[in-house]
Amino acid sequence: MIDIGVNLTSGRFSKDREQVLESAWAQGINALIITGTSVEGSRDAAALAASDSRRLFATAGVHPHEAKTWDEAAAQQLRTLVQQPQVVAIGECGLDFNRDFSPRPDQLACFEAQLALAAEMGKPVFLHQRDAHEEFMPILRRYRDQLPGAVVHCFTGTGEELEDYLSLDCHVGVTGWVCDEKRGGELRELVSRIPADRLLVETDAPYLTPHNLPKKPKGNRNEPAFLTYVIEKIAQCRNESFEALAETTAYNAEKFFQLPRN
User: Model-level pTM?
Assistant: First the structure.
């Protein structure tokens, strides 16, 4: 099993990060992709990934919430980070018009600049889109043929949005949102429409704790060890075995991020 999106540098893991990792390995997780969401955060993610080159990897990018910080210096720092072997994708990047923590013009410019950088560096992109699909798609479409891969992280969209992503040969990341009884109904219906070779799984820990956990964790903190519950729910929705889905999604992640085989 491979968790393609975990915010392992979050302060919520500062007191027991090593224990969290040991729990993940004990649960059968083979590798983690640590998400970078700012230049500083991406630097931290890359440093943490370098501590275990067989099992930890990182993305480097500027989240739309941080787009107001984007400038040429940020671009140069990302370009340097991406040259490190443990950095396997550019992102988390995209658009978020739900909260608008950064002005929309800044988000648009930051997103396009990172797609251009990914095309230049030959890296796949780890994408974020919330309430901005109409603006997101034309930008992604312009660059998609120049990118080795694109994954829409934490997909929670509509059937039409899913078809748009699949039409661009994107991978789709599914989180514990699928386990949410109230909010995850549409996703549970759509997850069977994701082609097997396009499906990736993630926890987005410490967020989006799966609701099918037998016991609510302390502080409701999600962990990469809980990826098994995400896979279990997706497998039920797709009428597949847990083992087959775990194997398929791990293979997809290895191929997408060009990870070494363990």
Answer: 0.97
